[in-house]
User: Fold these one by one.
Assistant:
Number 1:
Amino acid sequence: MGPVYSTRSAAETADIVKSALADRTTLDVQGTGAKQPLGRPAAANAVLTLSHMNGVMFYEPEELVLSVEPGVLLDDIEQMLSEKQQMLAFEPPDYSGLFGSSGSGTIGGAVACGLSGPRRFSAGAARDFVLGVKGVSGRGEAFKSGGRVMKNVTGYDLSKLMTGSFGTLAVLTEVTLKTLPRPPFETTLLVSGVGLERGVAILRRMAQTPYEPNGLAYLPKGVGQGACAAIRLEGAKVAVEERVASLRKTLQGQKILTLLRGESQAFWRDVRDVASLIDGGSPLWKAIVPPSDVELFVQENDPQAYFLDWGGGLVWLTMKEESAAPSARNGAIYLVRAPAAMRATAPVFPPLSEPLRALTEKVKNGFDPAGILNPMRMYSGF
Amino acid sequence: MKALPVEQKVVDAADELRRLLVECIGEDNVVAEEAERRAYESDGLTAYRQTPLLVALPETEDDVCAVLRLCHERGVKVVPRGAGTSLSGGALPLADGVLLGLSKLGRIVDVDYENRCVVAQPGVTNLAITHAVQDRGFYYAPDPSSQIACTIGGNIAENSGGVHCLKYGLTTNNLLGLRLALMTGETIDLGGKHGIDGAYDLIGVVTGSEGLLGVVTEATVRILPKPETAQAMLVGFMTAEAAGECVARVIGAGIIPAGMEMMDKLAIEASENFARCGYPLDVEALLIIELDGPAGDVTESIRNVSNIAKSCAAASVRVSSCDRERDAFWAGRKAAFPATGQIAPDYYCMDGTIPRKELPRVLSRLSDLSSQYGLRVANVFHAGDGNLHPLILYDANNPGDLEKAERFGADILKFCVEVGGVLTGEHGVGVEKRDLMSEMFNETDLAQQQRLKCAFDPGGRLNPGKMFPTLHRCAELGRVHVHGGKLFRPDLPRF
């Protein structure tokens, strides 16, 4: 690893990137480094760290808006929001267990990696909550996009483009997010003793009801609580209790456990953070598939261990053969945890069709023509 | 608005272009007669008109690609169009360009309840998607007021909203996948039934790009189970400030209504006069608050909102007791635009978004501007998400009135930006607000956006003249300015 540069402001960030551009230094852009093991290793000869750029610009709960510098810790944001009974509804995960890192990382990292927790199928993904960004492009130019309001179609939506681009287009210097009220009450029903087929059928049925479940997972035997379908309901206490009663009727004859607030929170935190597949050093994969395909996907790939989230739209899995990669007829597959050597050679992100790859490269060049920001972090070649 | 210079050699070669288009997509799908072309001369922003050079009406994705490839090869500009309901001139034709009408791609390709999605061609209307799935208790959430006519392709181009955005999001939040034809005639698939995935979020970029980046040939949209219950409240206030305070306290209490609309006195009067929907006429501001979801949750929220309204000195509170009454509450709001058309010969609809807390300041500024310009203004406001639609009343037959209304509108939008808001919440920049972009963005911001345009359409042939105040050549934007020989900051602290 080369030298480490630390920035404290957008202006300083622009200076660093401009200088890097001048002498062809390539930068590995980081917050606290909590998500460094995610994606391909960046082929950079210096590190730019944003962890000291950690000011809160403003938080206005009644406007549902939070604006922060990228280095603010996710834990601090969660704390600040929960004091106002609010949350980041995309549930940014904490992969410190998965990667053995020391903390859950920064908001900049969460946005740059574009990771979303169990609520994604109902409330949306990280990209749906980023209202505006400020950043410094690989040209060393500070720019902004979006704003602080909920509804905005002024110009291209670069905020979404930045989300999930792994710092390959620009260094984020400020992100403005939509917050949501934290529901006062939550309950999770665990329908236990069900196999994959039955479990998936339950998730599917729940997704079609108007009871607004916002967590739908399935854990097979041997993983976490095992052989159970999980249904999370949130809202006002009496209303959730009413919905629980209705759902119990539709699930008559099944063995149902009820997890109340603390237990329910812990359950979904584990699902979010992939806690049940942390152990063992096998490569960990993530597949996003149409929920209708999920049974076939599991059968065809015959994983070592797996579980389902997002109503069956997300499969976390490890393979029996360490060198084997899962495949899907439809959907997208990611390599989430693997040794750096494997991440440098295996396709870590879903492969791109030729025209899409060409376009992706042109988009990258438009922001970072010299290829100095997180080179190769997403794709080999740029 | 300054129009782009017309490329005379393209105009002169119109007959040959027509012949080549006919070879590509057949005689029936090419409109060349002037009288017929004139039908496409404007969209929902009727102040601007331009007859297109030729109109192509492809029937298939292959047709779309063939037209784009031909125009790409010959360097001819292309303006895509859905139903032409844009309120910002997004589909305004060019005298030297082909208008690419997508209405014939009007088929719903797949309805998939298991994956909660519909796959539709771009010419399918917004409402047709809901109609296709409502028997099974599903619907498509974004509901722009033109939903009976506007197409999903146009909705994607403009990232259309509606009255339910605060809870259900805009078009961009309800898309799972897109198939996009590029100017070269190549197609790319983004996302799919599994949703938006990996790679750069080009769906996010294309949505709201106003037809400047590509032509959507197929969209996969999310459908939702219809809420178990929906109830609406009609709450009157003696001041706009009190209504604004009520909105803030509802959200502050952790309640996200499905819709929360505000109307000022003039808008209330016009709507009541037009729709006879029972709005109170003795109040200064009216809120329509809709709550939807499981029955128990709605009952609880209605109780809470009623209490908040009372604590904000509401002059009247009514709660709908059945769907018919709820529809009646909405009838006036939904008719607000035509109703305004009845109290003045013409109106000009604005579309800024502001931080909600700035509402009193913005309304007071609007009132000052109204006196200054001598033009009345009626306000309808998506209060939940801060999207303001001032309707400036004028008479196009009075010389200078239109220009006055436009200057008034520009002043409103500049003020929206000044208080931390944006130029457009859901109608788009188009030609209308193109020259105001520099109020919100500096040259670097705009150059960065245009570089994205260059990645998709380096020749700048797709819908040029919209969104950006100045057109730069891609080669010029691509240059990298390096401050020569500067060392890599040896002075910076290293950790």
Number 2:
Amino acid sequence: MGRTEMTLEATVNSSPTTIAELVGHRTTETFALLDEESKREIRRALLQAVCIPGYQVPFGSREMPVARGWGSGGLQVTLACVGADDAVKVIDQGDDEGVNAVNLRRLVTMSTGIDETTEVDEATLIQSRHRIPEDDMNENHILILQVPVPEPLRGIERDIRELARMHAEADYSRMWVSLYEDKVRNGVITQSTGYPCLVASRYIVATTPIPRWDIPRLHQSKFLTLFGAGREKRVYAIPPYTDVEPLTFEDVPFEVESADGATCRLCGSSDSFLVEMPGKQESWSCSDTAWCRRQRNT
Amino acid sequence: MTMTMNKTLPILDVKNVSKSFTLHNIDGRTVTALEDASFVVHPGEHVSLAGSSGAGKSTLLRLIYRTYSITAGSVSFRLANDEWVDIAQLSDAEVIALRGREIGYVSQFLHAQPRRSVIDLVARAGVSRGMSTADAHEQAGYSLARLGISRTLWDVHTSVLSGGEKQRVNIAAGLISPPRLLLLDEPVSALDPENRERAIEVIADLSDQGVAVLAVFHDLDAISRLASRIILMSRGSVVTDGPVDQVLPQLTPGDVQP
Amino acid sequence: MTSIHVPSPIIQVRNLGKYYGNFDPAMIDRTGPEHGTARDHVTASIVAAWGVNFDVAAGEALGIVGESGSGKSTVLRCIAGDVAASTGDVRLAPFEDGNVNILDLDPSARRQLRINTLSVVYQDPAEGLALGVTAGGNIADPLTAAGWRNFGAIRDRARELLARTEVPLDRMDDIVRNFSGGMRQRVQIARALANKPPILLLDEPTTGLDASVASGVLDLIRQLLEELQVAAIVVSHDFGVIEMLTERCLVMQHGRVVEDALTDQLLEDPHHPYSQKLVAAART
């Protein structure tokens, strides 16, 4: 959590404390795009989220220069957390060069003047859609995931009040029934991305939309993970060193994706999350492009 | 009322019992079915209730079993620990506890039962009176055989039985591990002569086992063979209560009509 | 008191009451059987049930009979927690040794009782089942709520319950919407029994089924009540159901209990004018 505190402190320090500073502040361009009030409001929501691991905290999602559904939630979290000393890495499907990743990263660096990087080692804030980087991360990292659908029970119940009640009472039997039905119908639990997980033995969260491959990384992780859903106006968090258990039956082991014998055609790795090259069957490559590049260079 | 030969304490002491029905939906009229009936029954005694149709025989049995509420008087029953309780004053829950184990009632009809095999139904009655499942099954088989229910019928559902078969199953269930007081309401009415004979033998055995029996039969033959005493009733009142040899000659065929 | 051993109560209900609308103490005396209505003409409030008292012991089934609107289902739903009672005291021996009036519990604690203390079988299977879920899945629901996490064990228990309620096992993985009414009711019963609750509430469990189907379901319920030694409350307008399943019963009219009696006594010697009318109607 050390880094979180530092980040927040850095941002607080940049806030005006005297009238003169305030006047000066107003005339300068706002740091990190959002006004201070908005950032505070989001940080308050994030603090609450960290205090209640897995609980979805509502927040007043702002209009962003990206459309909702394009990472606006993750972006707001990043902008609320970023301090002058941070370095940011943004990936989309593991790729630092995805159009959306590039745009979001540019927005963060241009509105803050902080450094950008593709290397996990150098980054302090990592905003991601669909992946957790393959590299080890530690207490110095905050992982920010862009979430399209924050409600893990959405497929089971539509009524918002009933959903709130189910979470409040940890009444998750219908979630278990849906896993049971899935297993009965398909022989396996078919849910692939966004696998539902129980956080700190209390709340079920949607891990949308990371693949199963990344789920074990969340358990007792050294880093803080923040989830931001702009369209749905919710944030939630998995603090460092928190239990994260994918929901599964005792006798139905949780399995991550694997393609037998597949290796990355670029770096030769077989122990990373591989994706099929578009339009080319049986041709695989690492989803995490920065990691793949480093494998080739060492 | 004549002195009984029995030296033991009675098990049942009926005193000044009356029963009337208020028919709220037929101009609120009151119908009296029984008036001021008094008598006692001892363990091992077989007392036959006789009298013409409407004399109040079945009413009396139902009052003792509390299928009818008791309008006036007391129905004292001696528990196994010699404590006397007035059935008229018992709570419904106490009556339920008393039924089956202490007081049994066998009517001419087999009561509505779920689909259950014949042997199961009889054995279950035994279990409800405290027998072990194994003992109850053994005893049930023995009783059914004695009553002429062939083994091929033991595992069928009671719903497929004939009227006479049902009646015998009913007797078997009512008499397994018999309660201390047994109320019989025309239990052999539907039986052919051969099976009737079997049933009468089984009922006769009860007296030897010390069971007090209060029974309504519709034939003089059964009464003469089973009863040790006869209570003759007429129009809701007890007319005569005495030993078989004294009362039997007074009976007319009309006194044993159902 | 006699020395006759009477089993101690599992369910204890005292002064249970439910009204809809505003409360005026005087409305209690302006409604009920003597007034021929549960609706108070002054406040327009409805006194759906008032002053209801009874006990139910383990292994015992208590019947509540009456016409629709008599308040019998209201009583059952107040105990189940589907409807919030207005007043009263309800204690369940298996819950905190009967030291807590469950009507004082918050909704969340009431729902907890439904997991393994108290189950309800409704007239309409859609109320007790998820129709879009398989028969096995419907049973998995209360099991997982009670903490079952082994898929094989859940399957085994579901199979056992469906076999006991005579649902063909080859239909275990079919969704309940495709089942007949009688079969749905059997699945509902299987589900209700999943966690072996000591208390079972049955609300018109065979109403709406064809006569032959109803009698089969009734048979099953009777057998289960004998076998499982649960404390049961059976609400029905049908004396056949009450006679088959219960030894004691209450008669309700316009929100009040007008008679409580041994079931055979109620059928042979009903006292209250309304009971006599009901029994006479049932006998024809």
